[in-house]
Specification:
CATH superfamily of the largest domain: Response regulator
Radius of gyration: 20 Å
Structural class: alpha/beta
Number of helices: 13
CATH architecture of the largest domain: 3-Layer(aba) Sandwich
Shape: globular
Number of domains: 2
Number of strands: 15
Oligomer: single chain
Strand order of the largest sheet: 7-6-8-9-10-14-15
């Protein structure tokens, strides 16, 4: 509650500022619109800490434009309607950089609203920075010039996951379980499509969608999975919906494999415990055991907040914005958007590129497995004594997928 009050106060302070087009040495204000309360609130709160931590790291001399970044959060309660209200409040007070990620339904609403606002209000344009919403439509049929995605989309991750599953010969029967919104639907669609191409011998023995962030007992779903004879589950679940699913599997004796997108996110490592060792996998654009500067940042973040940093797209956003603002010699969103198209930056695990065609970041992907932390892979999320260890890396060109985006440029 105290943290929520601080967020509200900080939001009010930022939204009262009209400084938008910061020059070198001044401040670029950014608002992240995401859940900070409810079942999925812990994820949003952890990610907001990450933004504030890295805003400090990348400010001033930390970016080639020399600007200072400030990020505050507004709680949207995972509601598209609440998100649009927050967007209007931010725009009315002069904020021109909007961040969001949790929930593709929210991202689709924000992307559409930002596009319409920019068309109707020349001179007051806004850029939408998407850190986690992975519905492929956002960079395909519903792509927008003002939307930039820094996560890998559902199809990209499924390309990597299905390639990995080619060699998982013990996996013969799969159950697909997901949240009943755009992301869950897309995971099911691309799972069936890619496995049909790469592992036509695999049988899909069941498929279910459940309400987003409303299910507290997944035991009935685990019973269905076991009755179907599934030796593996594919799920795009995140937050409490994955933590409670894993908890139910452990409590009800399901010993099959889980192929996930978000096993490393707040709450899930604790739910996994040691029971998931060797049988829970995650596909992602980063992992807990990347060495070098990333390892130092993660240790520092954990010491400061007693929390784990996992949303690496936060770092990418600051890297790309800093480079684009230096290239544009401006923080005007119109000039920065143009500079971000096709830009390449060196990031924590190699070079990444913001593809001009659809504004989808091209980046490496990893398959990791839940196992005991050791000398080679020492980072232990939520102090479980376990970790997600990399078992396969897929470079940019392998994980990339084509786009049908027909972008309308201003």
């Amino acid at each position: 509650m105290k943290y929520s009050l601080k967020v509200v106060v900080a939001a009010a302070a930022v939204l009262c500022s009209a400084a938008v087009f910061a020059q070198k040495g001044e401040t670029v204000k950014m608002v992240r619109i995401d859940p900070l309360t409810g079942l999925l609130g812990p994820v949003g709160v952890s990610q907001l800490k990450g933004y504030q931590f890295f805003a400090e790291k990348f400010s001033g001399a930390g970016n080639p434009a020399g600007v200072k970044f400030e990020v505050i959060g507004i709680d949207n309660k995972l509601s598209p309607t609440e998100s649009l209200t927050a967007l209007k409040a931010a725009i009315d007070q002069g904020v021109r950089y909007i961040i969001q990620g949790n929930g593709s339904s929210v991202a689709l609403a924000l992307s559409d609203a930002v596009s319409k606002h920019n068309e109707r209000n020349p001179g007051k344009e806004v850029i939408f920075l998407n850190d986690s919403a992975v519905d492929p439509d956002l960079t395909n049929s519903k792509c927008s010039y003002w939307h930039f995605r820094f996560d890998a989309d559902t199809s990209m991750k499924m390309e990597a996951m299905s390639s990995f599953m080619v060699d998982q010969k013990d996996v013969k029967k799969i159950y697909i379980l997901g949240q009943n919104y755009s992301h869950g639907v897309q995971v099911a669609r691309f799972a069936k499509e890619t496995l049909g191409r790469k592992r036509p011998d695999i049988q899909i023995v069941g498929e279910d969608l459940h309400p987003l962030a409303q299910t507290r007992d997944f035991a009935p779903y685990i019973a269905k999975i076991k009755a179907a004879g599934a030796d593996a589950v594919i799920t795009g679940n995140w937050g409490s919906d994955l933590s409670l699913l894993i908890k139910a599997a452990n409590e009800n004796g399901y010993t099959g494999k889980f192929f996930t997108y978000y096993a490393g996110v707040t709450g899930t490592p604790s739910a996994l415990g040691t029971n998931g060792a060797g049988r829970v996998f995650q596909v992602s654009y980063n992992h807990y055991n990347i060495s070098g500067q990333m390892a130092k940042w993660m240790t520092e973040f954990n010491t400061k907040y007693n929390d784990d940093f996992y949303t690496g797209s936060t770092i990418r956003i600051f890297e790309v914005l800093g480079a684009a603002m230096a290239k544009a010699k401006s923080t005007d969103p119109v000039k920065v958007a143009a500079a971000m198209e096709g830009i390449k930056v060196k990031s924590f695990n190699g070079e990444v590129e913001m593809r001009k065609t659809d504004h989808q970041l091209q980046q490496p992907l990893y398959m990791t497995v839940w196992q005991k932390a050791d000398a080679k892979f020492p980072y232990s999320p939520e102090k479980t004594g376990m970790t997600l260890a990399p078992v396969k890396e897929y470079p940019n060109y392998v994980s990339s997928t084509p786009t049908s985006c027909d972008m309308k440029r201003p």
